[in-house]
Amino acid sequence: MNILAWAGIAFCAATAFIQFVTIAIVILRGRIAVGKLYAKPAVTPAISILRPVCGLENSIERTLRSGFELDYPEYELVFCVANGDDPIVPVVEKLMAEYPQVPARLLVGDDRVSINPKLNNLVKGWKTARHDWIVMADSNVLMPHDYLIRMLSRWSPTTGLVCSPPLGSEPDGIASEVECAFLNTFQARWQLAADAIGNGFAQGKSMLWRREYLDDNGGIEALGAEAAEDAAATKVIRGAGRHVRLVELPFPQPLGRRTFRAVWSRQLRWARLRRVTFPVFFSFELIVGGFFPLLVALALGLFDVIPLWSAALLAVAWYGSEVALAISLGWTSTPKQVLAWILRDVALPFLWVAAVSGSGFEWRGNLMNVKEDSLVEAD
Q1: C-alpha span between 359 and 187 (Å, rounded)
Q2: CB neighbours (10 Å) of residue 24?
């Protein structure tokens, strides 16, 4: 065999090893977590939960309602909306009336401290939060009853921030299944594996802070140093000599119906943000999916470098490991997910090329540009 053939074999072996090891790490981590009982800690500090809201999303009343039904002794809910005419306002007001026993407020206003509309929406909540422990949680996160307990259980003396990546649930249609394929056995898996080896990255879906760790390092405005507040949070916490930790098992986000255009737009936005915030890690995203390893294995089989059946065996093992991960942790694992995983991996190289070929994206009606670091009004 020539050097090119050996290089192809080495590439397939290395990428398969990484695939199987990261999945094994997350399965082991998850199974240990499933076996744990999230008992209330000896100290349960009062917590302020900030929820930025904007528009009517899938299952929005259910996800917001879940915040009123937490099993925790003392917490407040602070809803933040940029525009008082937003259609989400009546939904929030209805829920606050239904749960008068839960301290809750709705704050209206838009503080332009950054190019990030979500961060601008959160500023007023941060500044008026009554407690020193603060959770920032997206409106589409479905909070289980032990949500706060599970966040607190990951805190240690060296922790500066606890987060949860989104976990896609309840997909409706193949586009939504593809969204799950991106979120769960790909993105969440990589983030959980990184956290397991002590290299956790912040994720903006759910973030548990101690107020002083942010206020002593520039305040909430410091999260505007990057286009994405979670990337800025990672750098702020690491710069302060502390660690970002992830929850043992992510919290679900009901997806409902999605269009391919919406899925592509969201993934492109995140990819372009990763490109400018963590360029070294982003550079490897081109080859971490199954597209190139399986394509190279097929080519090696067709040129009789390896038996053709071994290429097929690699494909079965590759996606079989994702099946094992999804089933083991109770994530979406329908037969459509296998097709969605294949479509995701085919899309990944095109997504990577699109991410490096431009800098603009739309977010909540705002046209943004990660290169120019500017915010312009959408048409």
Answers
A1: 21
A2: 14
SS3 (DSSP) at 367? strand
Domain ranges of the chain: 3-27+277-364, 39-258
Residue type, 2: N
How large is the angle between the packed helices 229-239 and 260-277, nearest 10 degrees?
A: 30
In sequence order, which residues have a C-beta less than 8 Å from that of residue 293 and are 6 or more positions away? 11, 12, 15, 16, 19, 287, 314, 318
Q: What pLDDT digit, counting tens, does each position of 11-27 carry?
A: 999 999 999 999 999 99
Residue indicated by tokens 């989104």: 166
Beta strand spans in the chain (E): 47-52, 75-81, 104-108, 133-137, 159-164, 166-172, 206-210, 243-246, 251-257, 360-363, 366-369, 374-377
pLDDT tens-digit map of 229-288: 899 999 999 999 999 999 999 999 999 999 999 999 999 999 998 898 888 889 899 888
Query: Locate tokens 């065996």: which residue?
Result: 313
- Contact indicator for 356, 198 with CB cutoff of 8 Å: no
Gap between the Cα atoms of 22 and 28, Å rounded: 10
Length of the chain: 379
**Separation CA 353–CA 375 (nearest Å):** 23
- Are the C-beta atoms of 119 and 33 separated by less than 8 Å? no
Q: Domain 39-258, what architecture?
A: Alpha-Beta Complex (3.90)
Distance separating alpha carbons of residues 111 and 109, to the nearest angstrom: 7
What interhelical angle do 174-182 and 335-357 show, nearest 10? 70
